[in-house]
Amino acid sequence: MTDQHLPKEEGEQAPEQVRRLLAAAAEPPEGPVRAPGAAFTARARRGLLRRRLAVAAAAAAAVAAAVAVPTALGGFSGDDGPAPAASAECLRTAVQKIRDRQEQGYRPVYGTLRAGRIDVDDGVTQSSAFRFDVDGALADGGAGVPSSGPVTVWYPAAEVQLPRPGRYVLLLDPADRPSKEGDGLFHFAPEQALPLGDDGRVVLECAGGGKGAVERERLRAAVTGP
Questions:
Q1: Which of 34, 110, 178, 226 holds its CA 20 to 30 A away from the CA of 22?
Q2: Rounded CA gap, 201 and 214, in Å?
Q3: pTM higher than 0.70, yes or no?
Q4: pLDDT tens profile 156-196
Q5: How far is residue 129's CA from residue 172's CA, in Å, rounded to a whole number?
Q6: Is 208 exposed, middle or buried (0-12, 13-18, 19+ CB in 10 A)?
Q7: CB distance 118 to 129 below 8 Å
């Protein structure tokens, strides 16, 4: 049987079928067209408002994170220029912060933070750490924290948030569990990662975001004194 013996709908070419379907779709439906009700419109407006608020909140969070990370890193990296001598008030504030941490079991030590990120696994949590070579301690206490030798310091955060390599005064506290490899792990107080210069001066955080430097031995005497 050829196309001329088929009904018109069956024998026409594909382009003609497409044209007829499009034409049918373009015809208005029979009967009156009902506009969306007030409830439908209200729901649509509420949904649009929620989406806009979500976008605005996400943008605000991204900006806050971008500002917070450099601010936190500023305390680790120090300033390029030499810090002025710390005032008596700045020293008292720094000493009080150290003593507060000592009451929590931390011990102030000083040494060199090595470059490189270390993957650590305590059998429960996988995270990051860095190696710190302890040269000495500013005070006793902190059971389990050595006064010399290399230690692994656990800091469960992104690598960009870890202190830069260099010399520091750190407050260390033994972690609850050793690493999966059997090595001891230590926590440190990030707000007390105090840069230690080659001249033996420790850079302190002072009021108003300023910085002040003090001799390491003077800081030791202030921490251990009355």
A1: 34
A2: 5
A3: no
A4: 656 666 778 999 999 999 987 766 666 678 989 888 899 99
A5: 13
A6: exposed
A7: yes
